[in-house]
UniProtKB/TrEMBL annotation, chain A:
One of its GO terms (cellular component) is iron-sulfur cluster transfer complex. This is Co-chaperone protein HscB homolog. NCBIfam families: hscB, PRK03578.1. GO terms for molecular function: ATPase activator activity; protein-folding chaperone binding. Belongs to the HscB family. Co-chaperone involved in the maturation of iron-sulfur cluster-containing proteins. Seems to help targeting proteins to be folded toward HscA. Signal peptide: none annotated. It holds the Pfam family HSCB_C. Residues 8-80 form the J domain. One of its GO terms (biological process) is protein folding. CDD domains: DnaJ. Interacts with HscA and stimulates its ATPase activity.
From TrEMBL, chain B:
This is Chaperone protein HscA homolog. Keywords: ATP-binding, Chaperone, Nucleotide-binding. CDD domains: ASKHA_NBD_HSP70_HscA. It comes from Pseudogulbenkiania subflava DSM 22618. It comes from the Bacteria. NCBIfam families: HscA, PRK05183.1. The gene is hscA. Pfam families: HSP70 (PF00012).
Length: 177, 619
C-alpha cells in the first residue's frame, strides 16, 4: 500500500510551521493523533486496517520525535525549505567553536578518568545551557530573520553539542550502572 | 472482525454482542486468567476456587500432561519430568541459563532455544508454556461458556524480541488468538490507574518469581505513556530461594544433592522465605533421600543479609529508568508494587527509602497484572466503544546491526515509543562485493558478543561495484507488541530481502503448524468444521464492517473503487454460500486488499476530525 501523509509534520499536528513551539500543544496533539491511529484501535479489524494503522502510528511517532527535538525540528524545517544541513560533509567551523569543543572533550575525559559523576553531571548542565543559547539563535534565524544558511551553521553546531551530551550520558551510565 | 472501529454517532455497527476475551498473566511461578464481565475485571478461578495456577507442567507415564497444583505436588518426586519456572528458558540458549535456574533439568541445546529432556521426549520451553496456556484457555472457556475470540498475554517489559516471539508462539500453539502482547508493568498500571483515575508520573516496580521490571509511566487524560522501562529478565523470587538454599547447604555441610533432594530443598527454601514475610524466624526441615534430616532455623536478619545484594540489584535498573525518563524521585507521584516477591518487607523498605514515600500495595500483587490484561483485552476485542484509554509503550532494549570489527551500530534506541520504524544505509567493503551478511542484535553494549543475536541473514545479488558505491538500506519495523521485522534493500538495483526476525531464536511457522497438528491429530474433523465456522464468522463481520464503512465514508471512494469493493462484497457472499473454508478465506483476503486504500483514507479523515475538535477545544 502506498499511503503517505500529504501534509508535513506540522500540519499533521495542526501546528504552525515554525521553530518556536508550544511543547504542551505538541504533546497533546500527538496523543490525539495516536488515539486515532494506534494499532490497539484496530486489534480486531481486518488486515488492511491493521497494516494502515501500523504505518500511520509509526509515522505519527516519527513526526512527534522529529518535532520534539529542537535539533531535529530545525533540520526538518531546513529540509522543507530545501536546504541541506551538510552535517556529515561540512566540517568547517569557526576556530573559537572548535577550541571550545576541544575544551569540552578534555573536561569530559578528565571527569571520566576520575570517575567523577558529579563533575560529569555539571558538564551536562553547562552543555544544556550552551545548547539553549544556540536554540535561541536558531529561533531567530528561522522564524524572524529567515536566515537559512545561518540556521544551517547553527544546526551543525547544535549537532556537535548533542554528540557531546551523548558522550557525557554514556560516561555517566558506564560509571553508575 | 470489525472493520469499523471508530464509531460515529448514529452510524455504529450492528448491535454489539459481547465478545469473550481474556487477559493471561503467564508468570514464572504462577499464571492467571482474568476477564471483564458486566464492566468489572475479575480473575477466573478453577473448580476448587483457586485463582493462581502454578506454572508447573508434569509429563506423566501414560502420555498425559498435568498442569498446576497436581504437577507441583509431584515436583520433587519426579524432578526431571516436572518443569517449574519454564519462563526462564523462553527464547534462551544453553549458554544463557544460569546455574541457579538450570537445576535439576537435563537440557539439550537445540537450534534456537534449549530443550528439556522429559519422558515425553525433548520439550521446547514454547511447548511447555503452551501446555500452561492451554490449561488456562480451557478454564476460561469452561467458566465463560464459549470460545474465546482472543487473549492479551503479558510479558515482562524487559523481555527481548526472542522472548516475546517465543511467548507469542506458545500462545498460538495453545490455539489462542493473541490480541496483543502487553508489558506486565503496563498492565498493572491500567488496573491501578483506572481504579484511582490518577494523573501524573508513576513507577511500577514488579518483582515476580523470575523476572524484574520497572516502568515509569506518565498518565494524562486516559493516556498511559511509558517514559522508560528497565529491569532484569533473570532476577526474581527464585533467586531469593536459591540464596536460602545455598545458605542451608552450607549450614548443613552438604554439597552436590541429587535432583530429588535439590528440588525438595528449594521448595523448603521458598516456604521459609515466604514465612519470613510474616514471622521473625522460621524452620527449614527436610528429610533427604539418604535418610539425613535437615533442621535449620532462619531468622529475618540473616535472610536480609544473604539477600541484600539481590535487593540492591533491583535498585540499579530503577535508577537507570529514572535517568532515561529524565525525571527525579521527587517527580514521582506514586510507586506501585507488583509481583509476589514485593511482599518481602525489606524490598518494600528499600523501595520506600529510595522514593521517600510508602509504596502502593492496595491491589493484590499477584492479580493486578492479569486484571489489567483483562481490561485491555476487553478494549481490544471491541467490547468498549467509548471512554477508552490508550497505551503508548516503548521498546525496552536498543536494536542494532553488526558493523566492522564486531561492533554494534544502534538503529532504534531503547525506550522509543512503539510502533517505530527506522532505516539505515550501509555500503560494501570490497570492490565487486555481491553479498552482505546482516546480523541483527538487541542490547545496549558496544560489542556484538555482549548483545543478543536475533537473526542473521545474507543479502545476495548486490550488483558488483567499487567498494563504497552500493547503498543498502536496512529497515527495522517494531510493532505494538514489541516484535521486530527487518527488511533490506539495495537501493541502486532494488534487490529486496524481507525477513521476519526469528530464525536465531523461536520456532518457524512450519514447526508451529506441525506441533499444532501433532497435538490435535485425533480431532482432525472437529478442526475442519471449526475452521469453516471461523472463516464464515470472520468473513461476515468483515463484510458488515465494510458496508458500514461505505455508509459512513463512501464519499472517499471513486465510482470505480466503489464498484470494485462492491464486487468484492459479492464474492464474499458467494463464497460463504459455497461453504468452503479456502474459498471464503480467499474472498475475504481479496476484500481486505481492495479496502486497503479506503482504510487509510478513512483513518486520515478521522485524524483530521479529531484534531479539529482538539484545536477548537483548545482555543
Ligand atoms: N508472602 C510472600 N513473601 C515473600 N515472597 C512471596 C510471598 N508470596 C509469594 N512470594 C514470592 O513471589 C514469587 C511469585 O510471584 P508472582 O506470582 O508475582 O510471580 P510470577 O508472576 O509467577 O513471575 P514473573 O512475573 O517473574 O514471571 C515467588 O518467588 C514467591 O515465592
Ligand atoms: Mg508476574
Amino acid at each position: 500500500m502506498n499511503f503517505d501523509f500529504k501534509q508535513d509534520h506540522f500540519s499533521l499536528f495542526g501546528l504552525p510551521r515554525r521553530f518556536a513551539l508550544d511543547a504542551g500543544q505538541l504533546d497533546s496533539a500527538w496523543r490525539t493523533v495516536a488515539a486515532q491511529v494506534h494499532p490497539d484501535r484496530y486489534a480486531s479489524a481486518g488486515d488492511a486496517e491493521k497494516r494502515a494503522a501500523l504505518m500511520m502510528a509509526t509515522h505519527a511517532n516519527e513526526a512527534y520525535r522529529t518535532l520534539k527535538s529542537p535539533l531535529a525540528r530545525a533540520r526538518y524545517l531546513l529540509q522543507l525549505a530545501g536546504v541541506d544541513t551538510q552535517e556529515d560533509t561540512n566540517t568547517s567551523m569557526p576556530a573559537d567553536f572548535l577550541m571550545a569543543q576541544m575544551e569540552w572533550r578534555e573536561a569530559i575525559g578528565e571527569a571520566k578518568d576520575e570517575h567523577d559523576v558529579a563533575a560529569l553531571e555539571k558538564l551536562a548542565r553547562d552543555l544544556q545551557r550552551d545548547a539553549a543559547a544556540l536554540q535561541q539563535h536558531l529561533g531567530v534565524a528561522l522564524d524572524d530573520a529567515g536566515d537559512l544558511d545561518g540556521a544551517a551553521v547553527l544546526v551543525r553546531k547544535l549537532r556537535f553539542l548533542e554528540k557531546l551530551e551523548q558522550e557525557i550520558g554514556d560516561a555517566i551510565e558506564s560509571l553508575l550502572f | 472482525m470489525a472493520l469499523l472501529q471508530i464509531a460515529e454517532p448514529g452510524l455504529s455497527a450492528a448491535p454489539h454482542q459481547h465478545r469473550l476475551a481474556v487477559g493471561i498473566d503467564l508468570g514464572t511461578t504462577n499464571s492467571l486468567v482474568a476477564t471483564v464481565r458486566s464492566g468489572a475485571a475479575g480473575v477466573l478461578p478453577d473448580e476448587c476456587g483457586r485463582s493462581l495456577l502454578p506454572s508447573v507442567v508434569r509429563y506423566l507415564d501414560d502420555g498425559d500432561v498435568a498442569v498446576g497444583f497436581a504437577a507441583q505436588a509431584e515436583q520433587s518426586r519426579d524432578p526431571h519430568n516436572t518443569i517449574v519456572s519454564v519462563k526462564r528458558f523462553m527464547g534462551r540458549g544453553l549458554a544463557d541459563i544460569s546455574e541457579a535456574a538450570a537445576q535439576p533439568y537435563r537440557f539439550v541445546d537445540a537450534p534456537g532455544m534449549v530443550q528439556l529432556i522429559t519422558r515425553a521426549g525433548p520439550k521446547s520451553p514454547v511447548e511447555i508454556s503452551a501446555d500452561i496456556l492451554r490449561a488456562l484457555k480451557q478454564r476460561a472457556e469452561a467458566s465463560l461458556g464459549g470460545e474465546l475470540v482472543g487473549a492479551v498475554i503479558t510479558v515482562p517489559a524487559y523481555f527481548d524480541d526472542a522472548q516475546r516471539q517465543a511467548t507469542k508462539d506458545a500462545a498460538r500453539l495453545a490455539g489462542l488468538n493473541v490480541l496483543r502482547l502487553l508489558n506486565e508493568p503496563t498492565a498493572a498500571a491500567i488496573a491501578y490507574g483506572l481504579d484511582n483515575s490518577s494523573e501524573g508520573v508513576y513507577v511500577v516496580y514488579d518483582l515476580g518469581g523470575g523476572t524484574f521490571d520497572v516502568s515509569i509511566l506518565k498518565l494524562t487524560q486516559g493516556v498511559f505513556e511509558v517514559l522508560s522501562t528497565s529491569g532484569d529478565s533473570a532476577l526474581g523470587g527464585d533467586d531469593f530461594d536459591h540464596r536460602v538454599y545455598c545458605w542451608a547447604l552450607a549450614q548443613a555441610g552438604l554439597s552436590g544433592l541429587n535432583a530429588h533432594d535439590s528440588r525438595l530443598l528449594l521448595t523448603c527454601a521458598r516456604e521459609a522465605k515466604e514465612a519470613l514475610t510474616e514471622h521473625a524466624s522460621t524452620h527449614l526441615t527436610a528429610l533427604l533421600s539418604d535418610g539425613q534430616a535437615i533442621d535449620l532455623t532462619l531468622d529475618q536478619d540473616t535472610f536480609r543479609d544473604i539477600t541484600k545484594t539481590l535487593v540492591d540489584k533491583t535498585l540499579l535498573p530503577v535508577r537507570k529508568a529514572l535517568r532515561d525518563a529524565r525525571i527525579g524521585v521527587d517527580d514521582v507521584k506514586g510507586v506501585v508494587m507488583v509481583g509476589g516477591a514485593t511482599r518481602m518487607p525489606h524490598i518494600q523498605k528499600a523501595v520506600g527509602d529510595l522514593f521517600g514515600q510508602t509504596p502502593l500495595t492496595n491491589l493484590d500483587p499477584d492479580k493486578v497484572v492479569a486484571l489489567g490484561a483483562a481490561m485491555q483485552a476487553n478494549v481490544l476485542a471491541g467490547n468498549k466503544q467509548d471512554d477508552d484509554w490508550l497505551l503508548l509503550d516503548v521498546i525496552p532494549l536498543s536494536l542494532g546491526l553488526e558493523t566492522m570489527g564486531g561492533l554494534t551500530e544502534k538503529i532504534i534506541p531503547r525506550n522509543s515509543t512503539l510502533p517505530i520504524a527506522r532505516a539505515q544505509e550501509f555500503t560494501t567493503f570490497k570492490d565487486g562485493q555481491t553479498a552482505m551478511s546482516i546480523h541483527v542484535l538487541q542490547g545496549e553494549r558496544e560489542l556484538v558478543s555482549d548483545c543478543r543475536s536475533l537473526a542473521q541473514f545474507v543479502l545476495r545479488g548486490i550488483p558488483p561495484m567499487v567498494a563504497g558505491a552500493a547503498r543498502i538500506r536496512i529497515t527495522f519495523q517494531v510493532d505494538a507488541d514489541g516484535l521486530l521485522a527487518v527488511s533490506a534493500r539495495e537501493l541502486t538495483s532494488g534487490v529486496e530481502a524481507h525477513i521476519e526476525v526469528k530464525p536465531s531464536y523461536g520456532l518457524s511457522d512450519e514447526e508451529i503448524t506441525r506441533m499444532l497438528t501433532d497435538s490435535l491429530a485425533h480431532v482432525q474433523d472437529d478442526i475442519e468444521a471449526r475452521k469453516l465456522r471461523e472463516a464464515i464468522v470472520d468473513a461476515e463481520s468483515l463484510a458488515d464492517a465494510t458496508r458500514a464503512a461505505i455508509a459512513a465514508d463512501g464519499d472517499l471512494l471513486s465510482a470505480d473503487e466503489l464498484a470494485a469493493i462492491e464486487a468484492g462484497l459479492g464474492a464474499v457472499a458467494d463464497a460463504i454460500a459455497g461453504n468452503r473454508t479456502v474459498a471464503i478465506n480467499e474472498a475475504a483476503h481479496q476484500l481486505n486488499r481492495l479496502t486497503e486504500t479506503f482504510a487509510a483514507r478513512r483513518m486520515d479523515r478521522n485524524v483530521q476530525r479529531a484534531l479539529k475538535g482538539h484545536n477548537i477545544a483548545e482555543l
